[in-house]
Every structure is written in C-alpha cells, then in structure tokens.
Prior knowledge:
Elements: H1 2-23, E1 29-32, E2 43-44, E3 47-50, E4 55-57, E5 65-66, H2 68-71, E6 72-73, E7 80-87, E8 94-100, E9 107-111, E10 113-119, E11 127-137, E12 140-150, E13 157-164, E14 171-177, E15 180-188, E16 190-196, E17 204-214, E18 217-227, E19 234-241, E20 248-254, E21 261-265, E22 267-273, E23 281-291, E24 294-304, E25 311-318, E26 325-331, E27 338-342, E28 344-350, E29 358-368, E30 371-381, E31 388-395, E32 402-408
Antiparallel strand pairs: 1-3, 2-6, 3-4, 4-5, 7-8, 8-9, 10-11, 11-12, 13-14, 14-15, 16-17, 17-18, 19-20, 20-21, 22-23, 23-24, 25-26, 26-27, 28-29, 29-30, 31-32
Amino acid sequence: MKKYIYSLFLFLFVVDFQVFSQEEPQCELKHFPAKDETCETAGNKEYWYCEATETYYADSYGTTPTTLEAQTIAPKGHNYVFDSWSWAEDKESARVKFVCENDVNHVETVDAVVTTDTTHATCTTDGKIVYAAKADFEGQKYSDSKDVTLSAINHKYALKEWQWAEDKESVRVEFICENDANHIETVEAVVTTDTTHATCTTDGKIVYTANAEFEGQQYTDTEEVTLPAINHKYALNEWSWAEDKESASVKFVCQNDENHIETVDAVVSTDTTHATCITDGKIVYTANAEFEGNKYADIEEVTIEKLGHDYAFDSWSWAEDKESASVKFICENDAGHVETVDAVVTTDTTHATCTTDGKIVYTANAEFEGNKYADTEEVTIEKLGHDYAFDSWSWAEDKESALVKFVCEND
C-alpha cells in the first residue's frame, strides 16, 4: 500500500513539473531601470519588457504583467516664481524674470509694456518722468516703476511780438519765456517817425521805428504807412502762379496810368483731398493777398490720379470639416477693400493600419488676378490596433504539446 502511494505521488510531481515548465516565459526580459521625471520630461518606474510577446512586467521574473502607461511618471511641470526686474538704461523698456522652483535652470523672461507719466520741469521747479512697467505671466500681473528727475530749466525769454497802436504813435514789445509760455514780460518802446510825403504820381510813406531794451539787448521794429499817390486808382490786373503752385503774386495796375504797377506776394495755403483706389484726389492751392487795405484771393487746383487697387495675399480660411476653403486678399492702398476667393479642395487619403496612423491631405487651389495660390491641411486617421480572434488548435504528433493560433481581424 505504501509503495502504491509513493508511486502515485511521484507521478503527480512529474506531471506538475512538465506543466510548470511549459508556462515559463519563452523570451529574455529586457530591464528598464527607474528614471526620475523632470519639469518637461516623463520618468518611469523600474520595469521589464518581453519583446517576443510585447508584454511589460513589474518584476524581473515576468510574473506581474503591467503596461508602459502604468510604469510612466508624468512630468512635474514648471513652477515659475518672480525673480527680478531689469530696466533698459533709457527706461523705455523693461523685462521681468521668472525662475522655476523645480529647476533653476528653467528661466522665462517677459517683455513689459512701459508707459510714462511726465511732470514737466518749470523755470523754477524740478519735474519728473515716472516710468511704469506692467507685464502678465501665467495669469498673474506684475508691475514696477522708475522715477527720473527733470531739473528746473530757468527762464529763457525770447521776443514774441510787437504790439503797435492803431495810430503807430506807440508800441509795446512782448517777450515770452520759451520754457513756460505763462511767463511774459512787456516793455514800452520809444517810437520815432520818418516821413516821405506823397506826390501826384508817387506814394509817400511814414516809417515808424520802435526801439526797446530788455535784459541788456536792443530790439528794433518798423511799421510803414503808405500815403497814397494823388489820383492813383489801382485795380487787380492778374494773378501769377509759380509752376509748382507753392507761391503766387497778384498784380495791380493804376487805372489812371498803366505805367504805375504794384505786385504783391501772396500767402499760399493748401487743402489736400487724397486719392483713393477708385476716386481721384486733388490739391487746392489758395492764395491770399492784401493791398491797400483790401483782401484778394485766388485758387488753383491740381488733380491727384486715383491709386487703383493693389491686392495682396492675406490669409487662408478653412471650413471645420476641411471640405471647403477660401483665400482672402487685402488692398495695400486701403485695408477696407477686401476680396475673398473660394478655393477648389481635393483630397488624398492614406488609410490607417493596425500599427500606423493614416491621414487625409486636403489641398486647396485658388486663382486671383492671374496668380495661383495653394494651401494644405492634414487630418490624422488613428491607427486601428490589433483585433485578434481565435483561429485554430495545432497538436504535436505525440500529443505532448499544442499551439493555439489567433488571427487579427483587421489584417
């Protein structure tokens, strides 16, 4: 009886050993050591990989299956904090520096928007310029400021104008501070006269000469009053314009004696209507002159030819489904003039397989003003992955081993 039990135990041990031997992994496990994650790159736990079966294991014996995703450690990500401000020497620009607490070698620098608030110096008091810098980073606002002192500039008087009385018998000269127009000094001048009497055929005149002294400097001004020649009767004869229209003069001829002629230079001003893409513009030159107390005016116009359109490529616009697209052109002479052309869209498809992505390449072609334009968009078709299904069993001739076959239904 004992001999029988011992034989049965030996038989079971042999069978169990054969089954265990068949379940051992049939490939060499490749070791991947643990790696720490960084701010920007993923790390991983220690794992082993069987290339033959494409299986990942958490242990070196191949008894604990896992996945690459389960062993992967996501990146820490950046954790930036404020470090410092840096200003340009002229204070017109500034930058703010941020350093990552996870890795001090990771630095971000942001250009700030700098605005100025100026308190101008006066003749007697200092001023200042306050430079304010503002920047945004990762949803947070940062600011800094710098002050620059503007020293007081002192008075700097310059002659502003002579103020003559209507009868020219008296005059005042006004001086204004070039540093502050509110600072004004007025000086009474001494007026002398020099008279040339009119004759029958020639004008006379009175020359009024004003002399004044201010801060050790002498100033002189003159005014002339015409004494009309006896029996003269001037009338406008003609306007004379320079070829470039920038200057003009008006000619007056005495109706009593055409040998008596006066010519006056006019003051010319311009009013410009700019040409557009579709309409002509013009420059209106207006000449104004004064003679013997009367005002005269004349006008000359110069046409500015219309510019015409000058369209340039701006951008492509694709429909969400990529089945249609259009191209936009903007006139360089007037951004309000826009032309949009619908494109012809064609497709080229590369089908996905079990292990590789496919794609659809959409190509848009358009023509505008004799030129051809093209653009492309790509849409990825994700790979199908394997979909294995049972196919058949295959037994060894001695029935001591067997294989089961699985075939992917996608390929």
